[in-house]
């Protein structure tokens, strides 16, 4: 039974076409199906299990960044720093392993706390500093990127234990490890948003912050938490990134924050906050990944790919605008 | 002048207007009456071309017209002042009046002088004096309304719709507005006037049209009806007494909240009040006299220069409404849509918004079954009329929305509720239900602070009344002294002590 915070629809009857069409997930799902079918025609290889797993593995990093971004956007905020934070965390934790000789697990955990810390700092600046999120996170994005470059001197840091590649390219059965991590993070996020008071307060903040505050919701703490979550998911993405690249790359993740935002919005979350579902974000991220993958399989010029993706995002948002 | 005939309107399968007629003559003030949800706003939106009728005709000066959008209606001489103003807050009166149709001089540069001159002319025609150099958000609500009216007139409106213009005005501002309306009437403008204040209808209107549930009920001269008859036409049943009886005053009732000293602004007046157990304490005064700010300051939601609060004799300092909630103080804010409700949320989500402590499951999670059961119980208690707990609150009428906010707080075990304008924009039937709920709450030992601009409400509901003027309390009256003369005298002439 669905009590999704943004639909408010009671879930008694089972399959009901009207209700499905009015779900905020309808449009992202339709988009996903249409694009998949098109890609299936364009490439015989597309629907193979191998390729599907490949797509999921490729989207996992952006999809994980998009989880934190969903929390932030649902409150009506935005976090531009996620790509840079991910690169910084990757650089610092590999640095701790290679330069400081810290055991790898400890370095990873330290990196995760650094990501969480930066996120909380963003949140504190937005909540108590009363500064616009877009400016705060733009500034911390620059700072995080700069700190990573200073620390590494601009060069990748390599020489980390080889078992770390398990996070990037490992498998359990036929499932790639990053995909499993991604699904676990989405499951946790779903529970947080749909089954806890905190989740409802996230939606309430985006729906009407004044009303939420006047009725006794601790709005500043909610803000602190969502940016903290965003920093945390950026750091978790950094673990996968490190495993995939087998090095700390201070320049990695450039523009990933925009992909994450695109995934959230393609997934049907309102950019002004208050409405949206975490499952939509997953669909949005996969949709982006399929586009990337399919356009690659078709051998389309990578520069042109960006133009096509941009056009598709515009189209999707335009249709979504009419839909609601 | 204006004739709407057999107007019907359906949204999807649901018809909301079932063939409504409205005839307004030049040089008259015509009241459009009906409870919330009767179809007044829909009808006015049709008149203004914002939505299209499903059937029926619009005639202006005998000519049949079809408006595809608002601009076409404006061109035909229809002007409307909405409940929510459409002014741009940071622009001044002149800029607002000529927004998007600025007069241009040579080289396409704005002709400020010509615009200003035209604006001054119109203001003179209205016989009002509005500062045209400051951004409109620094004007009073009434002045902003005059700017809206002036804007409509600058478009040569001959039919002017005023949608609840008096809801947010003080009595003297209302008087001023009526003067302006009479002036316009003299100039032959046809005015459609929407208001929930029946005494205003008798004061200013010539004829009335009453709607009920989307049906046309009657149209007649104001002189043909009296107050009771009007209410009866609107609600279809007689409401004998709006207010539940007041219980006998209990002088021994303990003080729950003592605000010894509250000073809203540095250098402003310092005042205080006491809220006793089981009473309704009315906060009366003109709009802007500091009533709302005082209750918000008490809860830490408004930055007062100082505010000393004692609860049960213990000094407290609230920095956030969340702390008020922990101490059993709840606020029902002035503006339901902007401050009270998450409009994109369902009834259930709005009611349980600040109350998840009540249905926890394994400490962290929401027990959805308990939440649903508690919501249903709360909805029954306040008699919310809706499809179910999952209906979105923005589909409800004003009265039902307010009941949802009340239910949110009754769902807690609150000791003190602050009702800020509890019945603004709410129809007669829902009003008396809300009054009854308030009395139920105090009868059970709760205490209420009620901020209200409606004098009859203050008089009918309050056990004691604090009268505000210019940022402070100038008098506290009780018993037989709670009457309109006494309160208005204090509110308009009371002295406040300024302390540096």
UniProtKB/TrEMBL annotation, chain A:
Its main location: membrane. One of its GO terms (molecular function) is transmembrane transporter activity. It comes from the Bacteria. One of its GO terms (cellular component) is plasma membrane. Pfam families: BPD_transp_2 (PF02653). The chain crosses the membrane at residues 25-47, 59-92, 104-126, 133-152, 172-193, 224-241, 261-291, 303-320. Keywords: Cell inner membrane, Cell membrane, Membrane, Transmembrane, Transmembrane helix, Transport. It is a multi-pass membrane protein. It is found in: Cell membrane. This is Monosaccharide ABC transporter membrane protein (CUT2 family). It comes from Paracoccus lutimaris.
UniProtKB/TrEMBL annotation, chain B:
It is found in: Cell membrane. GO terms for molecular function: ATP binding; ATP hydrolysis activity. Pfam families: ABC_tran. It is a peripheral membrane protein. GO terms for cellular component: plasma membrane. Transmembrane segments: none annotated. Residues 2-238, 251-495 form the ABC transporter domain. Keywords: ATP-binding, Cell membrane, Membrane, Nucleotide-binding, Repeat, Sugar transport, Translocase, Transport. Its main location: membrane. The keyword Cell membrane applies. This is Monosaccharide ABC transporter ATP-binding protein (CUT2 family). It comes from Paracoccus lutimaris.
């Amino acid at each position: 039974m669905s009590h999704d915070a943004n639909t408010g629809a009671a879930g008694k009857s089972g399959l009901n076409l009207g209700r499905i069409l009015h779900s905020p997930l309808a449009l992202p799902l339709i988009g996903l199906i249409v694009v998949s079918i098109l890609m299936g025609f364009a490439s015989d290889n597309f629907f193979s299990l191998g390729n599907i797993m490949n797509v999921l593995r490729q989207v996992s990093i952006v999809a994980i960044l998009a989880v934190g971004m969903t929390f932030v956007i649902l409150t009506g905020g935005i976090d531009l720093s996620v790509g840079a934070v991910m690169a910084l965390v990757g650089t610092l934790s590999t640095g701790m392993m290679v330069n400081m000789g810290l055991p790898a697990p400890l370095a990873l955990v330290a990196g995760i706390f650094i990501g969480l810390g930066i996120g909380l700092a963003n949140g504190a600046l937005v909540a108590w500093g009363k500064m616009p999120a877009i400016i705060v996170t733009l500034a911390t994005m620059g700072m995080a990127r700069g700190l990573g470059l200073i620390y590494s001197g601009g060069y990748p840091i390599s020489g980390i234990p080889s078992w770390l590649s398990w996070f990037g390219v490992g498998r359990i059965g036929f499932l790639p490890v990053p995909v499993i991590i991604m699904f676990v993070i989405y499951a946790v996020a779903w529970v947080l948003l749909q089954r806890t008071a905190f989740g409802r307060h996230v939606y309430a903040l985006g729906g009407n912050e004044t009303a939420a505050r006047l009725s006794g919701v601790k709005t500043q703490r909610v803000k602190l938490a969502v940016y903290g979550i965003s920093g945390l998911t950026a750091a978790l993405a950094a673990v996968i990134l490190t495993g995939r690249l087998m090095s700390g790359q201070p320049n990695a993740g450039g523009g990933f924050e925009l992909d994450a935002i695109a995934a959230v919005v393609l997934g049907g979350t309102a950019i002004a906050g208050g409405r949206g579902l975490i499952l939509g974000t997953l669909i949005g991220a996969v949709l982006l990944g399929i586009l990337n993958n399919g356009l690659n399989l078709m051998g389309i010029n990578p520069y042109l790919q960006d133009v096509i993706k941009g056009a598709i995002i515009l189209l999707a948002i335009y249709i979504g605008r009419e839909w609601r | 002048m204006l004739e709407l005939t057999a107007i019907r309107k359906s949204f999807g399968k649901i018809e909301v207007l079932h063939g409504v007629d409205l005839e307004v003559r030049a040089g008259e003030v015509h009241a459009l009456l009906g409870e919330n949800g009767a179809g007044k706003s829909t009808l006015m939106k049709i008149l203004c071309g914002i939505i299209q009728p499903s059937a029926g005709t619009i005639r202006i000066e005998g000519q049949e017209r079809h408006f595809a959008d608002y601009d076409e209606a404006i061109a035909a001489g229809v002007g409307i002042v909405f409940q929510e103003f459409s002014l741009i807050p940071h622009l001044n009166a002149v800029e607002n009046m000529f927004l998007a149709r600025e007069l241009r001089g040579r080289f396409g540069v704005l002709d400020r002088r010509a615009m200003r001159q035209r604006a001054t002319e119109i203001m003179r025609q209205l016989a009002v004096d509005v500062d045209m150099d400051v951004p409109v958000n620094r004007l009073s609500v009434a002045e902003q309304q005059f700017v809206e009216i002036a804007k409509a007139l600058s478009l040569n409106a001959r039919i002017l719709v005023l949608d609840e213009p008096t809801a947010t005005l003080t009595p003297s501002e209302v008087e001023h507005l009526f003067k302006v309306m009479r002036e316009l009437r003299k100039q032959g403008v046809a005015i459609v006037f929407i208001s929930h204040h029946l005494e205003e209808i008798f004061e200013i209107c010539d004829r009335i049209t009453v709607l009920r549930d989307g049906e046309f009920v009657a149209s007649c001269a104001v002189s043909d009806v009296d107050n009771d008859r009007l209410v009866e036409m609107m609600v279809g049943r007689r409401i004998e007494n709006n207010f539940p009886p007041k219980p006998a005053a209990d002088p021994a009732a303990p003080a729950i909240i003592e605000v010894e000293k509250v000073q809203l602004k540095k250098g402003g007046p310092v005042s205080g009040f006491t809220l006793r157990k089981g009473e309704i304490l009315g906060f009366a005064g003109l709009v802007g006299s500091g009533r709302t700010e005082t209750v918000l300051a008490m809860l830490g939601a408004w930055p007062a220069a100082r505010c000393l609060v004692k609860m049960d004799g213990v000094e407290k300092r609230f920095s956030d409404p969340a702390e008020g909630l922990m101490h059993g103080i709840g606020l029902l804010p002035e503006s339901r849509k902007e401050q009270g409700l998450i409009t994109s949320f369902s009834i259930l989500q709005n009611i349980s918004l600040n109350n998840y402590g009540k249905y926890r499951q394994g400490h962290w999670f929401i027990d959805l079954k308990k939440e649903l059961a508690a919501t249903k119980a709360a909805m029954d208690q306040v008699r919310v009329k809706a499809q179910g707990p999952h209906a979105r609150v923005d589909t409800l009428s004003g009265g039902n929305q307010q009941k949802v906010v009340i239910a949110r707080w009754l769902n807690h075990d609150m000791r003190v509720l602050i009702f800020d304008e509890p019945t603004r924009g709410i129809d007669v039937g829902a009003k008396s239900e809300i009054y009854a709920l308030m009395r139920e709450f105090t009868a059970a030992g709760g205490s209420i602070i009620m901020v209200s601009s409606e004098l009859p409400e203050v008089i009918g509901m309050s056990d004691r009344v604090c009268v505000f003027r210019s940022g402070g309390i100038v008098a506290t009256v009780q018993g037989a002294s709670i009457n309109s003369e006494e309160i208005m005298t204090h509110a308009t002439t009371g002295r406040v002590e300024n302390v540096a």
